[in-house]
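pasting for ref
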Amino acid sequence: RSSESFFPSVTEDCMDLFGTPSDHATPPPLLFTFESIYKDGKLASIASETVALTALPEANAQRLFRKTFAAMTNDGILSLYDARGDLYLLVSRTRVIEPFLRNAYGGDFRAGQSIPQPFFIKSVPRKRVADIKSWIESTDGII
């Protein structure tokens, strides 16, 4: 099931932040809780296998999850969307960055940005945003 069915109002709020109407033309952003990932059987198995030979495998499996989330957040791949709800946003090109850029610049990147950057876009490395802008320009024939 999609995050839209689990968190409908949050999904709509998130799409509003980067100027995308929730008309189902654009796929909604992926929102999930840390707990849902931590309790996923397949991911737990991979984490356990990865740290099985360490001195404290159970504690190290938990640490592996936390450190992976922290690293992905620092790299702008994930963003803590709602601390109270423990809700994370996957900052993907197709569901978050590209729709934001298309709406923020109205198709003309030379004209300047017309809507403010939401907090989760600000954490994305500038090079990644620039590369996506270039990709949009080249695929839309703006260049």
